[in-house]
């Protein structure tokens, strides 16, 4: 039975009250009654918002695609356009074109991107000067100005899981109006409880609840295609016919956005004559590119990470394990030789350091790497076109591959990844996971986390986290109080004190291991959930 809209409205208002900046929270109570009395629309909607003009005219064919400058290429863009901005973090961002759009003075734009830029780079340049009225993205990242504008109602923010964002773009480019996905099911993404725009006084625009449908006994939500007026992307090499070659992790959204837009503009580091690119090396055929401009803006590192010197006594595995490394060492035992593995940021990333010499795994990074290596040895070896999901510079191992975000999240949702190890704010006795938001404190977006837990039947989900938070509160709870990343998705919980196995079918925890020097009573005292104790309780 569908959840009553009045209940959803109430939950959303309460949630937004918690999200508000502290000095503004007291003003929400007045607005709640007014919003609740407003006319409500049906829960299941039969029409869907489209961000680009339907049946918009295609870009004209004929003539040269090469423009002398980015200013010329964006001359006919207009206020209110939907701009699909490729890149991941600052990697692959069309900086030259963004600067040209800023210079032109366009306003009231809707931007679609994975991230929102950083500092004065990427979309942060347009955010800073109030050029965007709406942004659709999966992760706010380090754009503090965007977060500030969202919390004060100056900009509308639509959060979309990273893989779903890629698939919505792919659908738009392929003429598919909508599709079903398990990503975001049984979360605020499904119910529409993340406000799109609000002020300290009221919610101005609610999120859209999603249609659901059961396939083979599993619930899926419907997502709609996401077309744009113009796509802006950056490529390493482009010939005069528009055939593009992308380097490493710049592939993420570039091709997807070019296909989904009425006009696609690429800034090229190298513009070459037709025939200069081997057909087998073309990543994006010229049919999807309308305009080509020279890339004149510099590329930037968002997080320049260099491997510590081997002789550094602090490098490698520490001789004395702190809590985080103790968790990571135990988490490494979940990995088997030949596994395809995705490691979340923080503690999960450390697990790779504790693999035995005879255990080799393929690390998958959701921004488009399979076979990810460590950090570069020197700054000279670092490449701004090659980063991990945490925006850090990395290297590739022999046999590695790079690919776009649709390919990457197809691997993830399709269950081709064997194990995913993630951090958590809370994890429940029934395997519910909350790890992307703490209302009122942490608001960054879900990134790829909801996609990573969308197929727990085929990809084992392991949580690696401290047992308690900084205030001493248990992260292992009977029921999650924070917004969920996924419901009933976690199979194993590893903390600095204990290891639990989760019965995802019936619900319930079983304590199977305790850390050396820790007894069951200590675990019980620090756990806000009921659990059974295995007969063959082990120590790690």
UniProtKB/TrEMBL annotation:
The EC number(s) this enzyme carries: 2.8.3.5
Annotated GO biological process: ketone body catabolic process
Reactions performed catalytically: a 3-oxo acid + succinyl-CoA = a 3-oxoacyl-CoA + succinate
Family matches, as Gene3D superfamilies: Glutaconate Coenzyme A-transferase (3.40.1080.10)
Pfam families: CoA_trans
Biological pathway: Ketone metabolism; succinyl-CoA degradation; acetoacetyl-CoA from succinyl-CoA: step 1/1
PROSITE patterns: COA_TRANSF_2
Alphabetical list of InterPro entries matching this protein: 3-oxoacid_CoA-transf_A, 3-oxoacid_CoA-transf_B, 3-oxoacid_CoA-transferase, CoA_trans_fam_I, CoA_transf_AS, NagB/RpiA_transferase-like
Entry coiled-coil feature ranges: none
Protein name: Succinyl-CoA:3-ketoacid-coenzyme A transferase
Species for this entry: Daldinia eschscholtzii
């Amino acid at each position: 039975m569908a959840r009553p809209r009045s209940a959803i409205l109430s939950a959303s208002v309460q949630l937004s009250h918690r999200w508000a900046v502290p000095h503004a929270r007291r003003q929400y109570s007045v607005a709640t009654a007014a919003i609740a009395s407003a006319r409500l629309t049906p829960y299941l909607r039969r029409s869907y918002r489209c961000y680009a003009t339907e049946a918009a005219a295609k870009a004209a064919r004929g003539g040269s695609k090469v423009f002398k400058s980015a200013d010329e290429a964006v001359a006919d863009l207009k206020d209110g356009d939907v701009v699909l901005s490729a890149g991941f973090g600052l990697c692959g961002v069309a900086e030259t074109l963004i600067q040209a759009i800023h210079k032109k003075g366009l306003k009231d734009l809707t931007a679609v991107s994975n991230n929102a830029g950083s500092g004065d780079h990427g979309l942060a340049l347009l955010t800073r000067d109030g050029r965007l009225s709406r942004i659709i993205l999966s992760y706010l990242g380090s754009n503090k100005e965007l977060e500030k504008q969202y919390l004060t109602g100056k900009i509308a923010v639509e959060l979309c899981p990273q893989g779903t964002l890629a698939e919505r773009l792919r659908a738009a480019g392929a003429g598919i109006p909508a599709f079903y996905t398990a990503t975001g099911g049984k979360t605020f993404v499904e119910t529409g409880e993340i406000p799109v725009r609000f002020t300290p006084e009221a919610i101005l625009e609610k999120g859209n609840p999603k249609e659901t449908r059961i396939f083979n006994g599993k619930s899926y939500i419907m997502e709609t295609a996401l077309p744009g007026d113009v796509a802006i992307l950056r490529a390493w090499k482009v010939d005069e016919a528009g055939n593009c070659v992308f380097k490493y992790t710049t592939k993420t959204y570039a091709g997807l956005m070019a296909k989904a837009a009425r006009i696609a503009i690429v800034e090229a580091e190298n513009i070459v004559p037709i025939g200069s690119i081997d057909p087998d090396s073309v990543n994006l055929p010229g049919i999807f590119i309308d305009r080509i401009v020279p890339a004149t803006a510099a590329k930037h590192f968002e997080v320049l990470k260099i491997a510590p010197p081997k002789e550094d006594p602090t490098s490698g595995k520490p001789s004395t394990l702190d809590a985080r490394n103790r968790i990571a060492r135990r988490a490494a035992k979940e990995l088997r030789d030949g596994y395809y593995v995705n490691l979340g940021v923080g503690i999960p990333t450390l697990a790779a350091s504790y693999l035995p010499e005879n255990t080799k795994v393929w690390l998958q990074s959701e921004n488009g790497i399979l076979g990810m290596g460590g950090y570069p040895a020197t700054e000279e070896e670092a490449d701004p076109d090659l980063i991990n999901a945490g925006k850090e510079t990395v290297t590739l191992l022999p046999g590695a591959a790079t690919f776009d975000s649709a390919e990457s999240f197809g691997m993830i949702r399709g269950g081709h990844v064997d194990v995913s190890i993630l951090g958590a704010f809370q994890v429940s006795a029934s395997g519910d996971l909350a790890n992307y938001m703490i209302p009122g404190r942490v608001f960054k977006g879900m990134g790829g986390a909801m996609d990573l837990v969308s197929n727990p039947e085929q990809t084992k989900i392991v949580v690696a986290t401290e047992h308690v938070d900084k205030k001493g509160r248990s992260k292992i709870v009977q029921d999650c109080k924070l917004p969920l990343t996924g419901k009933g998705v976690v199979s194993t919980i590893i903390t600095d004190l204990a290891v639990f196995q989760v019965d995802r079918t019936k619900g319930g925890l079983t304590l199977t291991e305790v850390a050396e020097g820790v007894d069951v009573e200590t675990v019980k005292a620090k756990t806000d959930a009921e659990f059974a104790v295995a007969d063959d309780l082990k120590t790690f």
